[in-house]
Amino acid sequence: MLEAGIVGSLDYKIIQADRADDLYAWLKDNKYSHSGDEATLDFYIKKAWFFTVMKIDTMQMKKKPDGTFDGEVTPTRFTFASEKLIYPLKITQLSVKDKTEALFYVQAPHKIDLPDEFSYEFTWAPMWSQATGFAIPDKLTDAEKTWQQHVQGRLQDYNQKVQQMRQKKHEPATLEWAKKITEDDLGVLEGKKPYTREAPKEDVEKLKLLKGHVQKGQFVTKLRKVFAKDEMDADLEFVRARVGDKEDDVEYFSILPTSPP
Fold first, then answer.
1. pLDDT, tens digit (0-9, with 9 covering 90-100), for 199-235
2. How far apart are CA 252 and CA 128, in angstroms?
3. Class of residue 2 by CB neighbours under 10 A (exposed 0-12, middle 13-18, buried 19+)
4. Contact predicate 92/226, CB 8 Å
């Protein structure tokens, strides 16, 4: 055990192990619920990862007459240093029956994508290309015209790729929002600038929660992916968004004619 303490309503311990069977036994002996197997634990032990285990601190809960407890569980943020931007997908596989949906918000110096077959480019590039086809040519920037030419030759292959994925009952990822944050964007979060889209007032007010987290000059990418259980055999490593040999920095924050609902 490397560290132990209380954060909010949670009693946590940070542990490290050299053997999966030892860790598995420790979790059982200390009454931590683990629905997986030793092989999954060994996957991360071989990477020399640390493990954080948590229990609700019942001292902060209200005990009911039937012996159960009532209270709120504290939202928890995990931070750790890494040379690569990684999401531990494999351990999530343990709690998935057939498939699960993941929604990611990623802040980075550039636009982010998922790797290889998980990429949203298979759906994003055709949608963007079709949407710009409705635009008045003179309204397109030189950069948009150049990008349109770059993606045009790949659209048929991308559409075929999506069909092949769906034949395997796999769903392609989708890009839902991507923008390089400006001073005006920060002004919206601080309530100094108006929010230019229709939205419930209470939702707009909650944007203030992002103040201090969203940084000027950084790219925020929102992407969604439904993972089938057989797609979750390894962790996710986020990558620089690209189409072929060119980096993709096309922003997506306006409602396009072909935008999904």
1. 899 999 999 999 999 999 999 999 999 999 999 999 9
2. 9
3. exposed
4. no
Kind and range of the H or E run holding 88: none
pLDDT digits (tens, 9 = 90+) for 105-141: 999 999 999 999 999 999 999 999 998 888 888 888 8
Element (H, E) at 12: strand 10-15
The total number of structural domains that make up the chain: 2
d(CA 148, CA 132): 8
Structure tokens at 101: 């949906």
What's the count of helices (H) and strands (E) in the chain, helices before strands? 8, 14
One-letter amino acid of 35 = S
The letter for the amino acid at 181 is I
Tell me the C-alpha distance between 77 and 108, whole Å.
18
Q: Tell me, yes or no, if the pTM score tops 0.70.
A: yes
80 belongs to a structural domain: no
DSSP 67: S
Buried b (16+ CB within 10 A) or exposed e, 120-143: bbbbbbbbbbebbeeeeeeeeeee
Same domain (yes/no): 20, 103: no
Which residues span the domain enclosing 132? 86-181+217-247
One domain for residues 164 and 237: yes
